[in-house]
Amino acid sequence: MHDRAVSVRLAGLRAAYVHASSPGLTQAVISAAHADPEPHVRLGALQLLIGWLPTQPNLRAEIERIQREDKEQDIRRAAAESLAHS
User: Fold this and answer.
1) 1 located within any domain
2) Which of 11, 40, 49, 84 has the most CB atoms around its CB within 10 Å?
3) Domain containing 43: what range?
């Protein structure tokens, strides 16, 4: 998640979809969802958190934070929609 190339960070998120989450992976995705400078990476991380939500209900607080704090309206909206359907 610390690679300078956006494409590499996005590829890391795509790879995470096929792996079981672990505490370290989950924390890396949470960090990307909140702090990556690239909106596409934050959105990809949010989507992964949403996908994990059924088995990790504690992630709801992270998604709520994204809904409140992300600087991109589309990302806030995606977080809000996911919360409405969970």
Assistant:
1) no
2) 49
3) 6-84
Which residue, among 42, 39, 40, 50, has the nearest Cα to 17 in the 3D structure? 50
Task: Note the pTM of the prediction, 2 decimals.
Answer: 0.93
Cα 68 to the center of its chain, rounded Å: 14
Q: What is the pLDDT of residue 34?
A: 98
Tokens of 4: 């300078």
- Residue 18 or 51, more confident: 51
Rounded-to-integer distance, Cα 22 and Cα 7, Å? 23
Q: Are 32 and 1 in contact (CB under 8 A)?
A: yes
Q: How many domains does the chain contain in total?
A: 1
Stretch 10-18: mean pLDDT: 91
